Amino acid sequence: MIEEQPMGDERRLGDRILYALELALEQKDLDVSELLAKALEATLTRFGGPDAVDKRDLPERMLAAFDALDRLRHAELGD
Comparing C-alpha atoms, which of 31, 19, 4, 27 is closest to residue 65? Predict the structure, then answer.
């Protein structure tokens, strides 16, 4: 089960999208999860321009959400 995170403390758009992605994954909604993952990726690449190299590591919550999305994809496809 996904740990509850208070929305009031989330100031960045990416944090709010991640929270929504976690909820969609918990509800096993693949279509919404895919859309939210794309939105989250867009927020990660928006800043810095096309040639910028981001040296930050992805937060554990984000990595866990992308792993959960991959598992959901495979479960839906029967892999």
Answer: 19
